[in-house]
Amino acid sequence: xxxxDVAGLTKKYGGRRQTAAxxxxxxxVQEGAVLGLLGENGAGKTTxxxxxxxxxxxxxxxxxxxxxxxxxxSRAIRASVSLVAPTADVGxxxxxxxxxxxxxxxxIYGLYGAHARRRIxxxxxxxxxxxxxxxxxMHISAGQRQRLALARSLLAENRLVFLxxxxxxxxxxxxxxxxxxxxxxxxxxxxxxxxxTHVMEEAEELCTEIALLHAGILIRHEETRALVRSLNEERPxxxxxxxxxxxxxxxxxxxxxxxxxxxxxxxxxxxxxxxIWSRDIPATTPAVVEFMRREGLEVRRMTSERLTLDDVFxxxxxxxxxxxx
Length: 325
What we know:
By secondary structure, the protein is of the alpha/beta class. It has eleven helices and 14 strands.
């Protein structure tokens, strides 16, 4: 079942000199997907999310979200989805503690009594806010306020959640906790998630599919692994093996998505290093680890160079730019 099925979405801003934020966007997202909506600043990501969440009306186009008509039933859409934006903490009440903010919102989302308390306790724990539950929002960090805003939006237990840069402003621990929560929401509870991010590693880790927006145009929408493979970009995995280990250099076809394997002295001149060039780092890495284990090799260090968002757009947007010329 498609929870999002829209076509021809167009949105322009400005007066007589209008600028197109979106142009003829078609998007279909099946229930249970995690869609990464990626694009440079100004590509139209936030505009698209606001339209899909029922907060903006498109100038042209339409469709359905959770079965509701995008234009005629926007109020029903707003009541049925959760949205966390980078400025979501603006709505927090500084006269209420962290827990009291969630207690205030719980009945608005239809949660009462023991059910509300369990849900609040779960979110405080999962988002690392348990030790801040009695603190005032103005006395916690910006990242903690962002996590509180995420907790507030997730109280509703909606089937469709929009996350606009959910790890923005978070420290490393906060990023890990939010990524884990997103994965659990999807895998354990079947929640469909649409998220924007500027971190390609985050998109690869969390998203089952990726949609690329370039200057308001949807240029690609594919399963994540297929998109990464289609970019045909070789990246190195470097494994430094301890001095004294001996190993026959494996063939590239020993590892999924590998294109060649090179052996060379490890940095500093002690020991051996293998560089495995791969077109799909997540697919190749487990096989490399298994090879090292099977051969009984002592690995000093293993590093990889993954795709960045800049790489993705440099490779994926190129045909669009060439067509425009």
